[in-house]
């Protein structure tokens, strides 16, 4: 059994967000972190590895510095890592990204017992599209919003967290599951021995040459040019000022409120 | 000269900083107030492998050397000096056993100290043997009938002594020979005749436990002698050289954090209509704090690199410890001063950092004894 965990390096939102002239994020100039939901997916995979001894493979698409993130995941306990990186893939939207990642996973092979874990969504784009799109392209069943994943025999039981409760469903492998962050189940730390050996673990670089002939790749539908989504404008929203609190249920307070709203042309 | 860290060392720094922020800082004020040794923090350190730094994997360690110890201790000290001290001092015992122990001793004791979650301690100081290690009064008399040594005496101010599972203890095997008659022993918690006495109430570093140890006809198998008979003083001195680099790292970490806090506060605190960061008097404080801390860091990292390359570093260890310790007090004092009344309040961590920083000028050799070591090295070439 092998679990592919798709992870993404995202801007650390506590720092400055920089945008390229074409509207895409200038990832190279920003502090980055591992997307929190992806970290949760990795933890779920490592919990299953502890229980079953399965292989855990970290997969990301990004610029070469994303290797640092993959090494951290290897230091946490992943067995091997795959970096999908090529100039031709740069600027891909979710449609193009899921196509490339699907092709890469297909290239590596999806066995009968295998699973693909993704974070529910990334904190930069917040689309929650890549995971489900990968499932569609690989023709796999998918379960989203997973908080707990158990595997007994061939059956995988997933606890999905919904707004008004939770749902437990069974799914058969191979499948794709998107995971949500859970404050109660913090991802494990790297270990010192993990750090010592993370550069010795198998590391695969899949570039354009390696993937261009994959059946799932359509060469005119990758990268910025091939992406159906065009970013019109990106900007950092201005910081909101401190709000004004009015207290009281009397007529005078209501008038004050109405005057403020009038001044601001809200009413 | 290249001071850049390896990728693995950068990752260790990131992990240490994350661990300090998420596990140590949240309880730092509480353990200080309650004078409580946080067993849970030490267990977490052991689980991740911090307690095995500097010890090869074959003995349960996590490899690395002095630089790795410095990185971890420095990052811990930024958030909790007591926890940084606990790790730094714990590592003395496994390092001494690794350097001077027999293969049997290494196999038996190192895994317990590195990955087993047992605390280590180093017991040299006695009521009348502080800076003057030759004043050791604890004796170890050989009993040839049982092939054991019988230890009698009292040790004081031993960090982690009452909780340690394995201790390196120094005693006189030839009382007339003074320092040339000191031997080192590996003592286990629970050995008959070994007990802990008073737990000290301290000005700072309250989250690390400082104990008195009592040996009353404590029988120790001769096989537990560490190194050769009457050669313990060398073990003590060599261990202290490494320990001093650890204290330097504590001083550096607390100073770095104090600067960060002070700079942040100067931008937030408005007096006379502008942030106090705009006042030149404040800027000069910050400049002095930053310059001296950078110098302490350079000296410390140079010493660690010297130690890791296998070269002598006794003089440099004394220098970096003394310099980083004096700087830690200097910087925490000014950072507290910049915070004014708020800095003096227990609501802010600075008053704790100021109290904690003071110990770096005293333990593992006072500032004064370090000047003796440095002067001796410089003048008696």
Structure summarized in a few sentences:
The complex is a heterodimer of chains A (267) and B (381). With 267 residues, chain A is α/β, with parallel strands linked by helices.
List keywords for this structure.
heterodimer, A: 267 residues, alpha/beta, Rossmann fold, nine-stranded mixed beta sheet, two-stranded antiparallel sheet, 29% helix, B: 381 residues, alpha+beta, Butyryl-Coa Dehydrogenase, subunit A, domain 1, Butyryl-CoA Dehydrogenase, subunit A, domain 2, Butyryl-CoA Dehydrogenase, subunit A, domain 3, 3 domains, four-stranded mixed beta sheet, four-stranded antiparallel beta sheet, 10 strands
How would you describe the overall organization of this protein?
The complex is a heterodimer of chains A (267) and B (381). Chain A is of the alpha/beta class. Chain A has a single domain (2-226), classed as Rossmann fold (3-Layer(aba) Sandwich). Chain A has helices spanning 36-52, 66-76, 94-108, 130-137, 192-197, 208-211, 223-226, 251-263; strands at 2-6, 9-11, 32-34, 55-61, 80-84, 115-119, 142-152, 155-162, 165-172, 175-179, 203-206. In chain A, the strands form two sheets. Chain A has a nine-stranded mixed beta sheet with strand order 9-8-7-10-6-1-4-5-11, sandwiched between helices. A two-stranded antiparallel sheet of chain A has the order 2-3. In chain A, helix 3 packs across helix 4 (130-137). The longest helix of chain A has 17 residues, at 36-52. Chain A is globular and about 70 Å long. The mean pLDDT of chain A is 90. Chain B is of the alpha+beta class. Chain B has three domains: 7-114, Butyryl-Coa Dehydrogenase, subunit A, domain 1 (Orthogonal Bundle), CATH 1.10.540.10; 120-233, Beta Barrel (Butyryl-CoA Dehydrogenase, subunit A, domain 2); 234-379, Up-down Bundle (Butyryl-CoA Dehydrogenase, subunit A, domain 3). Chain B is built from eleven helices and ten strands. In chain B, the strands form three sheets. Chain B has a four-stranded mixed beta sheet with strand order 1-4-5-8. In chain B, a hairpin with a 2-residue loop joins strand 9 and strand 10. Chain B is globular. The model of chain B has no long low-confidence stretch (mean pLDDT 96).
């Amino acid at each position: 059994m092998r679990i592919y965990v798709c992870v993404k390096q995202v801007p650390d939102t506590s720092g400055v967000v920089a945008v390229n002239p074409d509207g895409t994020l200038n990832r190279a100039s920003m502090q980055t972190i591992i997307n929190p939901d992806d970290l949760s997916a990795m933890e779920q995979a490592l919990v299953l590895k502890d229980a079953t001894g399965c292989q855990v493979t970290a997969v990301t698409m990004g610029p070469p510095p994303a290797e640092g993130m993959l090494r951290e995941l290897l230091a946490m306990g992943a067995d091997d890592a795959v970096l999908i990186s090529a100039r031709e893939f740069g600027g891909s939207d979710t449609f193009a990204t899921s196509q490339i990642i699907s092709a890469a996973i297909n290239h590596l092979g999806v066995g009968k017992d295998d699973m693909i874990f993704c974070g529910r969504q990334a904190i930069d784009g917040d689309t929650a599209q890549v995971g489900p799109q990968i499932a569609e392209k690989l023709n796999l069943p998918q379960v989203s919003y997973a908080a707990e994943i158990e595997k007994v025999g061939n059956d995988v039981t997933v606890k999905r967290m919904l707004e008004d409760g939770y749902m437990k469903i069974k799914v058969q492998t191979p499948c794709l599951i998107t995971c949500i962050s859970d404050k109660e189940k913090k991802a494990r730390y790297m270990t010192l021995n993990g750090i010592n050996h993370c550069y010795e673990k198998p590391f695969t670089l899949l570039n354009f040459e390696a993937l261009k002939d994959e059946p799932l790749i359509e060469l005119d539908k990758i990268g910025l040019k091939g992406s159906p989504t065009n970013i019109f404008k990106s900007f950092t929203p201005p910081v909101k000022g401190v709000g004004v609190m009015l207290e009281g249920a009397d007529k005078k307070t209501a008038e004050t409120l109405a005057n403020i709203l009038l001044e601001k042309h809200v009413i | 000269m290249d001071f850049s860290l390896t990728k693995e060392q950068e990752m260790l720094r990131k992990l240490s900083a994350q661990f300090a922020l998420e596990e140590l800082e949240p309880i730092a004020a509480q353990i200080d107030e309650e004078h409580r040794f946080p067993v849970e923090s030490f267990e977490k350190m052991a689980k991740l492998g911090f307690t095995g730094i500097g010890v090869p994997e074959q003995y349960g360690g996590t490899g690395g050397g002095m630089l790795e110890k410095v990185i971890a201790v420095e990052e811990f000290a930024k958030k909790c000096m007591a926890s940084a001290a606990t790790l730094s001092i714990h590592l003395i015992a496994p390092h001494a056993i690794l350097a001077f122990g027999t293969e049997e001793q290494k196999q038996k004791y190192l895994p317990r100290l590195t990955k087993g979650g047992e605390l280590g301690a180093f017991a040299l100081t006695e009521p009348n043997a502080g800076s003057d290690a030759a004043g050791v009064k604890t004796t170890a008399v050989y009993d040839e009938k049982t092939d054991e040594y019988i230890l009698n005496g009292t040790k004081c101010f031993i960090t982690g002594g009452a909780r340690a599972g394995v201790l390196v203890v120094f005693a006189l095997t030839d009382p007339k020979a003074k320092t040339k008659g000191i031997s080192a022993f590996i003592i286990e918690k629970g050995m008959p005749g070994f007990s802990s006495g008073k737990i000290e109430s301290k000005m700072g570093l309250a989250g690390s436990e400082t104990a008195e140890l009592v040996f009353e006809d404590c029988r120790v198998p001769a096989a537990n002698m560490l190194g050769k008979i009457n050669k313990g003083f060398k073990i003590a001195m060599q261990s202290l050289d490494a320990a001093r680099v650890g204290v330097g790292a504590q001083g550096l970490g607390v100073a770095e954090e104090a600067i960060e806090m002070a700079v942040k506060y100067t931008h937030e605190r408005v007096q006379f209509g502008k942030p106090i960061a705009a006042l030149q008097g404040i800027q000069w404080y910050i400049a002095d704090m930053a310059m001296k801390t950078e110098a302490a860091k350079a000296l410390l990292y140079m010493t660690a690199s010297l130690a890791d390359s296998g070269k002598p570093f006794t003089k440099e260890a004394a220098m970096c410890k003394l310099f980083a310790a004096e700087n830690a007090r200097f910087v925490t004092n000014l950072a507290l001063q910049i915070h004014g009344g708020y800095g003096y309040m227990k609501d802010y961590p600075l008053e704790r950092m100021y109290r904690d920083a003071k110990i770096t000028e005293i333990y593992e050799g006072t500032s004064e004894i370090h000047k003796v070591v440095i002067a001796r090295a410089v003048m008696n070439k």
